[in-house]
């Protein structure tokens, strides 16, 4: 499966939602996650994210993110339509360690 990682937080551009053929994104206040059992590994969302916040879970060091995506995909509502990104999304693009300070 693919996973959403740190840089989505407070960027939440949602271009990924637009292209996913199986609607496996779930929406928190500040980020989206992917349901790992629903993702068909098509890979089309990865290049669409302006924040480069989508990675294959086979990449090194993403265990924490794989767990977080699985956990919150069960708790958050599904999102199948792209909404507006936060007005200050571009200011958050690239800010480090957002998980520790801005996750929700
Ligand atoms: Fe959806 Fe494909 Fe991205 Fe998985 S890899 S989340 S199926 S667009
Ligand atoms: Fe997040 Fe990128 Fe989608 S910022 S909402 S993973 S397009």
UniProtKB/TrEMBL annotation:
Cofactor: [4Fe-4S] cluster; [3Fe-4S] cluster
Protein name: Ferredoxin
Role, per record: Ferredoxins are iron-sulfur proteins that transfer electrons in a wide variety of metabolic reactions.
Gene: fdxA
Listed InterPro entries: 4Fe4S_Fe-S-bd (IPR017896), 4Fe4S_Fe_S_CS (IPR017900), 7Fe_ferredoxin (IPR000813), Fd_C (IPR022569), FdxA (IPR054829), RnfB_subfamily (IPR050294)
Keywords, sorted A to Z: 3Fe-4S, 4Fe-4S, Electron transport, Iron, Iron-sulfur, Metal-binding, Repeat, Transport
Region (Disordered) residue spans: 83-104
Gene Ontology MF annotations: 3 iron, 4 sulfur cluster binding; 4 iron, 4 sulfur cluster binding; electron transfer activity; metal ion binding
Keyword Kinase among UniProt keywords: no
Domain 4Fe-4S ferredoxin-type: 1-29, 30-59
Database matches in Pfam families: DUF3470, Fer4
Entry annotated with the keyword Cell membrane: no
């Amino acid at each position: 499966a693919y996973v959403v990682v740190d840089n989505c937080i407070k960027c939440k551009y949602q271009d990924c939602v637009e292209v996913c053929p199986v609607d496996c994104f779930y929406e928190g206040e500040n980020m989206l996650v992917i349901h790992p059992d629903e993702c068909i590994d098509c890979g089309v969302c990865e290049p669409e994210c302006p924040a480069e916040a989508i990675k294959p879970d086979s990449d090194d060091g993403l265990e924490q993110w794989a767990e977080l995506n699985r956990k919150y995909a069960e708790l958050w509502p599904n999102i199948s339509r792209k909404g507006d990104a936060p007005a200050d999304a571009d200011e958050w693009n690239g800010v480090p360690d957002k998980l520790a300070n801005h996750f929700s």
